[in-house]
Design brief:
single chain; alpha/beta; 5-stranded antiparallel beta sheet; 5-stranded parallel beta sheet; 14 strands; extended
């Protein structure tokens, strides 16, 4: 059995300095830090034969005899395609449930984070359209608004006022400019405050607000949903990070866990698998044979060259298959792919 010298370590708050042990298991890192498992053999007055001695680093251990030690790592858990699709499907089911809770008023703020083209907006907008059906039939004012594109802090203040009543819902879809504007972030923090009274103020003169009849302060009682491609933890500015952390603490945050090219491809396959229609994602195309499988195979073979890996891309390629069943790959090469 290998003998080691622990130059600096600790066992049950007792220092271990330059003491020799018989090694049982090499250097490992767990929730409580790094350690090695060794034979006790009378070193400590305990009845345990094998003990774990904490160390700060693998260099705190010397070999006196036997083979050199390498770090022991846990076996890598491989997620199957089916398991990954189920994981992704569960996240989107949760997104649907949370969107419904926003419509009921049970949830006042939510942030949805995920890459473009995976259907983040579709489920939320579908829930909103369903809830607004009777208002549309009756000719009543629709109580939700989907805002897309760039937005200034002043524009944000104005739209929050217009939808500040209870049961009103604002969806900011890819309005990532508000997350890089310190003034806009301060407005959002006020609008989404966890207290009962959410007071928003605009403390400078504005002709736009006067012309629109918008006051310099108001209480926001509505609900806000943010759909973004932005990964908050990747923002480099410390000042903006602090604002984003404050914003995140005020909202329910859903990360759709689609972080790799493989996940994006499996999300497309999962939409196809779980679609209620016989032809899945491509039902409206009326394909007869294995065109869907051919599209997926083509996308997987050309992942690095496709201009975008998304549900939209799968449908673009389906358009080409429908248009020209014999030449669609050549057409795809020249329309939806980057140059080799």
């Amino acid at each position: 059995m290998t003998t080691i010298n622990i130059k600096s370590g600790e066992y049950r708050n007792q220092p271990v300095v330059n003491r020799q042990f018989k090694l049982v298991k090499g250097f490992q890192t767990g929730k409580k830090g790094s350690y090695v498992t060794v034979k006790n053999e009378g070193h400590f007055p305990v009845s345990i034969d094998e003990i774990k001695v904490k160390v700060n680093h693998i260099s705190d251990i010397e070999f006196l005899e036997g083979e050199p030690m390498t770090e022991v790592t846990a076996p890598k858990i491989v997620e199957t395609d089916e398991e990954a699709m189920n994981r992704i499907a569960t996240r989107f089911e949760i997104l649907d449930e949370m969107a419904a809770a926003c419509i009921r008023g049970d949830v006042r703020a939510m942030i949805v984070s995920g890459p473009p083209g995976v259907g983040k907006s579709y489920g939320v907008e579908q829930q909103l359209e369903k809830s607004a059906m009777f208002d549309k039939i009756a000719g009543n004012r629709i109580k939700f608004e989907v805002v897309k594109g760039a937005m200034t802090a002043l524009g944000l203040y104005a739209i929050l006022y217009k939808y500040s009543d209870k049961k009103n819902i604002l969806v900011f879809d890819d309005c990532d400019s508000v997350f890089s504007d310190e003034l806009a972030l301060n407005i959002l923090k006020a609008a989404l405050d966890s207290g009962k009274r959410r007071r928003i103020c605009w403390n400078s003169d504005s002709r736009l607000l006067r012309d629109e009849g918008i006051p310099n302060s108001f209480n926001f009682n509505g609900t806000a949903i943010f759909i973004t491609n932005l990964k908050f933890q990747n923002v480099r500015s410390k000042k903006l990070q602090d604002h984003l952390e404050a914003l995140e603490s005020r909202c329910h945050f859903i990360d759709l866990t689609i972080d790799s090219e493989r996940d994006k491809m499996l999300r497309i396959r999962q939409v196809h698998r779980d679609a209620d229609t016989p032809g899945g994602l491509f039902d409206e195309y009326g394909f007869d044979n294995d065109e869907g499988d051919q599209i997926f195979a083509f996308m997987e073979q050309n992942t690095a060259r496709l201009r975008e890996l998304s549900i939209r891309m799968a449908l673009k390629i389906a358009d080409l298959v429908k248009m020209s069943p014999n030449k669609w790959k050549s057409l795809a090469e020249n329309t939806v792919m980057k140059r080799a």
